[in-house]
C-alpha cells in the first residue's frame, strides 16, 4: 500500500477505491504505523506551526502566539488522543453494524474509519494559517460522505441503510471528539485547565482515563445488544430509548447520576461576596442524549468596576468526563513578569489558578467531589478575593451532594 496513492485515490475516487481496500489484508499495527500515524500528524503539526510559530494577528493587539512549551504539549496530547479516537470510533462503527444490516468485523471497521478520515487529515495542512483552519470543516463533511460510501462495502451494510448508519456513527464520533477536544482545549488554556507539562503517564489519573476508554468499547457492545432487542420488539419508543442509551454510553453517561436541579445550584450563591453585590443569577440544564449537565452562574460587582463571576457546573459524575478531566489536569508552577499560573491539587481536588500581576484578571477553578466544576473569574480584584468567592459557594455543600441522583 502506497500512502500517497491511497490518500489520493480515497479522496478523489472513493467509490472505486473502497472495493480495493475491502480485499486488502493488513494488521492494526501496520495500519497505524504506515497510514494513520503519518496522516493524523498533519493537522496537529500544522496547528503547532500556525499557532506557535506564525500566530494570529489581531487589530490593535498585534500577533498572538502560543508559547513553545504549551504548543509542544498540545501537539503531543492532540496526536496521542487522535490515535486513540480512531480506534474508539472504529469500535463504535463495528458495534453498530448489525443494527443496520451489516456484519461485525473489527479490522474492516478500523480500515473504514482510518481511510474515511483521510480528506480531513489532508485538509489539516490549512491549520498552518490559523484563519484558514475553519475550511477544514468542509473537508470533514466530505469525510462523512467518504464514510457513507465505505460502510456498505467494508461493513456489508445494505446501501439503503448506509445513510442512517453513517448518521449514527457520525453523531457518536462527534460526541467522542467533543470530549477529546475538551481535554486538548483545556491544555490550550481555553477554559478550565491552563497550560503545563504532562504529569507522569503512570499516574492514577492516566490509568483511570485509559481504563474508561477501554470500558467504553465494551459498553458499546452491551448497548448494541439492547438496540438489537429493541429492534426485534418492533416498538419505536424502545428503539429510540436504546439509541439514546448508546449515545449516552459514548459520553460516559452510563455511570452518570441525575444532575442536581439548577435551582439547587443557584441557592449556593450568597447575596454578597467580600463587599461585592450579586448583580445577576442564572441557571440552566442541558442534555445531549442521556448525557446531562446543569449549572448556575452568578456575577458580583461594585461601583469601582470590581467584578467576580462564579459558575458551578454539575456533570453528574460521568466516569468518562471525570477520567478525561483528571487526565487533562497537569502539574505546573509558572511565573512571568506579567503574572503566574499554577496547576495541581489542593486538598485532593484538581485545581487551576491564573493571575495577572496588575490585577486586571484572574481565575481559579477546581473539581469538587468528582462531579462539580467551580470556575471563578475576577477583574480588578486580587487572587485572595477570587478564591474567597469560589469558596463562598460552599465546597462542603457540594461534597454533601456528591451522591445526589446516583443510579
Automatic annotation (TrEMBL):
Bilayer disposition of the protein = Multi-pass membrane protein
**Any idea which UniProt keywords this protein has?**
Coiled coil, Membrane, Transmembrane, Transmembrane helix
Q: Which stretches make up the Yip1 domain?
A: 12-180
Kindly indicate where the leader peptide sits in this chain.
none
Pfam families, per database record: Yip1
Organism listed in the record: Undibacterium hunanense
Q: Which residues form a coiled coil?
A: 206-233
Membrane-traversing stretches: 35-56, 68-97, 109-129, 135-155, 167-193
Q: Where found?
A: Membrane
Name this protein carries in UniProt: YIP1 family protein
Amino acid at each position: 500500500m502506497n500512502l500517497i496513492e491511497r490518500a489520493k485515490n480515497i479522496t478523489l475516487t472513493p467509490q472505486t477505491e473502497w472495493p480495493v481496500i475491502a480485499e486488502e489484508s493488513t494488521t492494526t499495527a501496520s495500519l497505524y504505523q504506515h497510514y494513520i500515524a503519518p496522516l493524523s500528524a498533519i493537522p496537529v503539526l500544522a496547528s503547532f506551526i500556525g499557532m506557535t510559530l506564525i500566530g494570529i494577528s489581531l487589530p490593535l493587539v498585534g500577533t498572538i502566539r502560543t508559547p513553545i512549551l504549551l504548543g509542544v504539549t498540545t501537539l503531543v496530547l492532540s496526536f496521542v488522543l487522535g490515535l486513540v479516537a480512531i480506534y474508539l470510533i472504529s469500535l463504535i462503527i463495528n458495534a453498530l453494524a448489525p443494527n443496520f444490516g451489516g456484519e461485525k468485523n473489527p479490522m474492516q471497521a478500523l480500515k473504514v474509519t482510518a481511510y474515511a478520515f483521510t480528506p480531513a487529515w489532508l485538509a489539516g495542512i490549512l491549520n498552518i494559517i490559523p484563519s484558514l483552519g475553519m475550511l477544514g470543516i468542509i473537508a470533514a463533511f466530505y469525510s462523512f460522505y467518504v464514510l457513507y460510501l465505505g460502510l456498505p462495502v467494508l461493513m456489508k451494510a445494505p446501501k439503503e441503510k448506509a445513510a442512517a448508519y453513517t448518521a449514527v456513527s457520525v453523531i457518536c464520533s462527534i460526541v467522542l471528539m467533543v470530549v477529546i477536544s475538551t481535554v486538548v482545549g483545556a491544555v490550550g488554556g481555553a477554559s478550565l485547565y491552563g497550560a503545563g507539562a504532562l504529569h507522569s503517564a503512570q499516574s492514577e489519573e492516566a490509568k483511570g482515563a485509559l481504563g474508561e476508554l477501554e470500558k467504553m468499547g465494551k459498553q458499546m457492545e452491551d448497548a448494541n445488544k439492547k438496540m438489537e432487542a429493541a429492534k426485534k420488539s418492533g416498538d419505536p419508543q424502545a428503539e429510540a430509548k436504546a439509541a439514546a442509551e448508546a449515545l449516552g454510553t459514548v459520553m460516559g453517561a452510563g455511570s452518570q447520576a441525575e444532575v442536581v436541579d439548577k435551582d439547587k445550584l443557584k441557592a449556593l450563591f450568597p447575596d454578597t461576596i467580600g463587599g461585592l453585590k450579586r448583580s445577576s443569577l442564572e441557571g440552566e440544564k442541558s442534555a445531549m442524549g442521556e448525557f446531562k449537565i446543569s449549572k448556575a452562574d452568578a456575577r458580583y460587582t461594585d461601583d469601582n468596576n470590581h467584578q467576580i463571576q462564579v459558575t458551578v457546573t454539575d456533570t453528574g459524575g460521568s466516569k468518562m468526563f471525570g477520567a478525561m478531566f483528571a487526565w487533562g489536569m497537569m502539574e505546573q508552577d509558572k511565573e512571568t513578569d506579567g503574572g503566574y499560573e499554577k496547576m495541581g491539587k489542593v486538598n485532593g481536588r484538581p485545581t487551576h489558578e491564573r493571575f495577572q500581576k496588575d490585577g486586571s484578571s484572574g481565575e481559579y477553578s477546581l473539581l469538587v467531589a468528582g462531579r462539580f466544576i467551580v470556575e471563578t473569574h475576577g477583574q480588578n480584584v486580587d487572587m485572595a478575593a477570587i478564591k474567597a468567592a469560589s469558596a463562598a459557594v460552599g465546597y462542603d455543600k457540594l461534597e454533601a451532594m456528591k451522591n445526589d441522583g446516583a443510579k
